[in-house]
Task: structure prediction
Amino acid sequence: MTTQPVTGERESCAVFNPADGSLVGSVPAGTADDVDDAVRRAWESFQIWSRSDPLDRSKILFTAGRLVREDQKNLAHLLTREQGKPLRESMNEIAGFARVMEYYASISGIMQGDYGVNASYGHMMVKRQPLGVCAAIIPWNMPALIMGWKIGPVLATGNTMVLKPSTTAPLTCLALAGHLYQAGLPESALRMVTGSGEVVGEALARHPDIRSLSFTGAVSTGIQVAEHAAKTLKKTILELGGSDAMIVCHDADTEAAAKGAVSGRFFNCGQTCTAIKRVFVDSRIYDSFIHRVQELVGKLVVGDGLKTGTDMGPLHTIRQRENVHSLVQGTVDNNQGTILAGGYIPDTPPYQYGNFYLPTILTDVDPDAPVMKEEVFGPVLPVSVFDTLSDAIEHANATRYGLGASIWTHDMRTINQAIQDLDAGIVWVNQHLRIPPEVPFGGMKSSGLGRENGRYALLHYLEEKTILIHP
Ligand code: TXE
Result:
């Protein structure tokens, strides 16, 4: 984060374009007082919003979806400038945000309660009511979509929210909030507080008047946030990234698998929690698979995300690039894999001012190498060979993460074994990375706690009140 004084009293956080280092804009560096103020206003708003008709809340969410679709190009442009991803991906992410709003609009009134009658106890009712003010802390990699996942279930169930966007990519989130207000959402029902994680994020996690906290980010930050949240008894959802494995079996459609590996790894410059981070390939098709992946990677156009034809933009920050490059170098230096493509920082035009890293393939990688265990948040595809499915699954599970995994085969017995044995919150078959809002999303082990998305996400934001009426 860069802070610079703007007026005598306020500091701001500057937002830079990762493709060329130019200034895109700036936002206020919020303080703990700003968080306090936002929480107080969100509670005031809760008194009205929580009592509103779910149908009225639906109408606002639907309208917001429409307004966002109408402004898709401008929003996507802004997203690419502050985050770095190709415009095509930004367009999809903005459409994804709209879809999430529409999905929650369509289910806002469900899960309101249950009823039963019993000869001894009489009428038994369960009323589900919103918690109150909820908070969200979101990252920079998919800011629009993740904001949608956080606010959708909160607003649909009648809760209000204070949201902290990422320090380095907050502008699209602020613009999206503007569309929600324009659609009729009271400004106090969704308070945005910009600023650093250490100040604003920590103030949210520690705040005693927040009932739930949903966080997406690094494992270490998530643990810190959870400690503060536990001390103030907040319900917590943590989405902490992954090291997703892709297992390619001997009977897989090699062409589809190679394309899946390339799009699943290099999408968003590899900075997606459910990106393919490791590939295990059956020894019988290893050579043909690698050959095809190499061809496809060779065709990827790397550059400024705003330029037509760009397939992969820069990494979001220089720090991210340093982390990625050191993992690649460590693999080579320790003889744990070989570079087949990329593996270095380009410094000639047009790359010299941006955080670019070339799409990298590592072959014959030792399954125990750090590049196969940690979350490599960048454009690096490490590939390993396996002889038996059990070995592949064992390697896939040998990480602290458990977010997603995919199996590429047409054999039902293999699919069943993978579904049963992979430690992952989501298992794909012959695809990877896709996350529809209709189904739960979240991880096992260090990938986090709780689930977002799907109708059960509503339950996290509702608490039950039991009512017994004697006949
Ligand atoms: O994450 P941070 P960073 C992983 C990925 C990446 C690594 C570091 O491996 O390389 O994390 O990324 C706020 N109290 N993921 O440094 O710091 C921060 O301002 C409260 C995976 O960007 O965890 C931002 O809004 N909040 C991931 C958010 O936390 C704090 C997405 C995430 O930032 C805070 C992003 C604090 N003390 C990174 N410190 C995924 N799950 O998809 C920071 N924040």
